[in-house]
Write a structure and sequence with these properties.
This protein is mainly alpha-helical. Helix content is 60%, strand content 2%. The longest helix is centred in the first third of the chain and has 22 residues.
Length: 201
């Protein structure tokens, strides 16, 4: 189940770079190499030693990995889910390949910004009880709750990393102007013309 991705063949390289400019093909090749490295790093046995910030900065997005190496990515995520279920030994847990696969697909759908390395970190933390006890139950909902807790921990890191972004404004601060519901409805009106339909109250 823990299938390692093979290095890219010439056919895969042609598929990655087909019908695109050289810069796009180079970017796709970089993504493919980064995905291979990520899949290898999360498949290494033992405790995954990375911080939340390292997992975010150096990780490969789960959707990107699915696009480039779908079978290897699904296999790696299913393998991590299975290893957590086997380790925790809860009475009510995922036990079949279909259950593991459903959990993996749910993760892919609900958490598109999650990185492979982050999920490995979450799984290792689940094994050590970092997110709390499971009370004899370990199913998709518990994985979902642990990922949400991880995202809550990651939020301040992302705010710090992206603090320099000013959303297109020339100033350092973006001005927020609250609006009434009537103003919002008026602006959604297809006959609304800015400057012409505005009231001067």
């Amino acid at each position: 189940m823990n299938r390692q991705p093979d290095s890219l063949s010439s056919n895969q390289l042609q598929k990655v770079g087909a019908d695109s400019s050289p810069s796009r093909a180079e970017k796709q090749l970089e993504l493919a190499k980064a995905t291979e490295i990520s899949l290898r790093s999360i498949s290494v046995p033992g405790l995954f030693k990375a911080t939340n910030e390292q997992a975010w900065k150096e990780g490969t997005n789960i959707r990107t990995a699915l696009r480039i190496h779908p079978e290897a990515t699904r296999g790696a995520v299913i393998s991590m889910v299975k290893s957590v279920c086997d380790f925790v030994e809860a009475k009510k847990t995922l036990q079949s390949l279909e259950g593991y696969a459903l959990c993996a697909e749910t993760i892919f759908d609900i958490f598109p910004t999650l990185k492979l390395e982050e999920f490995r970190l979450i799984c290792d933390r689940m094994k050590t009880g970092y997110y709390g006890k499971y009370f004899e139950r370990l199913k998709i909902q518990e994985f979902r709750e642990c990922i949400i807790k991880h995202e809550e921990e990651r939020a301040p890191i992302l705010e710090r990393i992206n603090s320099h972004i000013t959303r297109g404004s020339d100033s350092d601060r973006v001005a927020f102007q609250p609006q009434s519901m009537a103003d919002l409805r008026r602006k959604r009106d297809p006959l609304y013309i800015p400057g012409l339909n505005e009231r001067n109250d």
